[in-house]
Amino acid sequence: MADDRSTAALQRRSLDAVWHPCTQMARAERVPPLPIARGDGPWLFDFDGHRYFDANSSWWVNLFGHADIGINAAIKKQLDTLPHVMLAGCTHEPAIRLAERLSARTGGALGHVFFGSDGASAVEIALKQSFHSWRNLGQSEKREFVCLRNGYHGETIGALAVTDVAIFRDAYDPLLMRAHIVDSPDSRLGNEAAALTALRTLLAERHAHIAAVILEPLVQGAAGMVMHSPDYLRQVRAMTREFGVHLIADEIAVGCGRTGQFFAWQHTQPASADQWPDFILLSKGITAGTLPLSLVLTTDAVYRAFWSEDVTRGFLHSHSYTGNALACAAANAVLDRFDAGQLQHNAEQASQLAEAFAPLAKHARVAHLRQQGMILAFDVEAAPAGFAEAFHLAARRHELLIRPIGRTVYLMPPYLIDAHVARWLAEAVRRTLADLFPESDVA
Q1: Predicted local distance difference test score (pLDDT) of residue 1
Q2: In terms of domains, do 404 and 357 share one?
Q3: Domain span at residue 418?
Q4: Which one of 123, 257, 365, 428 has the largest count of C-beta atoms within 10 Å of its C-beta?
């Protein structure tokens, strides 16, 4: 029956009708998707009543847990007044307020905000704004982009061109523009100096043709939570200033408090406007997992490059739901939490995670246990083929919903951790490892 909501029936209906993302649907026949009935705080519940701790925040978006009363109330209030109006020729207070508040968090260095729908669209917008602004300034030859090895910036055609994750990029490679790929810094390898040298060499040679460098500050997410230092970012900023190239900081995954500051870039301690990047991109957590929204923050210099009575010199990009009022209301409610001291709470929770997971470093299969704020990860030594799926399925038996990236197990949980929850998470991860590698278990 069409309204059958048993687990088996929903799995069958989903496989028949829904094309799931990042999923080989032939494989999904053997490992069907998990039907979720509801969410409450950090927990998700299936139709059989089993619960699962959402350790990856439903692809890194769910900052304050599911069905958060405060975020929901802000959306409901906005729903009763103005759900949506087009942002071309009209405006509304939630969008204005959100743009003003985000600009203020950069000290006004990035004073102009363009609204998108999702992370990949934010990347597309920033690439287009960079190129078009240079063209408006008479430098139309600056049309090349630089990205970091193993970096991820989305899966639309423009975003894929600056993404270096083979599984996403290679099938569509014939459609993509050519980007320069330089070595990425990796704290596990101690190669930041070499990575900076490689970037300097490229910029020295091609800066007249390069529009922008794009990177993920502090943590390369899809690469397997690869981490680097704020000093690397400071030096990249200085270098791009020296060679007259834009810098795009993709904070779609690492923004909104994930790293310990609202913007990951704040770890560089920018003392002046020119120490901020030319663009900061936000999405994912900005609406706390409720509604799609992305934002591109940029400088007055970029904004002014489009200032003209000539329509062709304007920034020509839009979508129907640009600046959706409901999404903006949710985002403003998120900022209210940070204004009320969320970062201090995050620091305490990060410390509790670190303490709870520290013993796992002794596990024979665990390597490079690492953490940046509310992002914790480790690599699994000698992981067999199919490890990520096997770990995911085993973890579900321990009430844990978690999706490794290759052989990297990571947690990016909702901001709802206390010492007890942190210990429970560490034990659930240990038990999952014990299921897969019983010979390597540690007490």
Answers
A1: 46
A2: yes
A3: 34-67+343-440
A4: 123
